[in-house]
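Why do we care about 3D structure at all? Because function follows from shape, and shape follows, mostly, from sequence. That is the central idea of this module. The next example makes it concrete: a single protein chain, its amino acid sequence, and then its structure expressed as tokens.
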Amino acid sequence: MSCSEALQAAKVYRQLLKSVKKHIPKEDSKKRFKEYVTDEFRNNSTLSDPSSVHHKIKLARGYTILLNSVHHHKDLLFSYNIAVDRTDEMKRILGKSAASVGLQLPDVYQP
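And the structure:
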């Protein structure tokens, strides 16, 4: 593997792990998926054929795009569904907005 291919592989590997960390919900599934990704990158680190290296990098990039796209699609479906109670979603969005400027939403009194 040449230097540029190694850099590409490292970049794709970091992006894929970041997507797994962000979009895979359960810790047990997340751990297994991260282990699988790590094992695949380690097993294929000795490939010398440039076409197979490019194929593996393209495959990993595709998985990264798939994870990000599925998560974004789920968010869009949830945001456009008017039949769903969106109060929790709105609280989450407001909490994120408040946190981005260093504020915290007050707790609502529940009698």
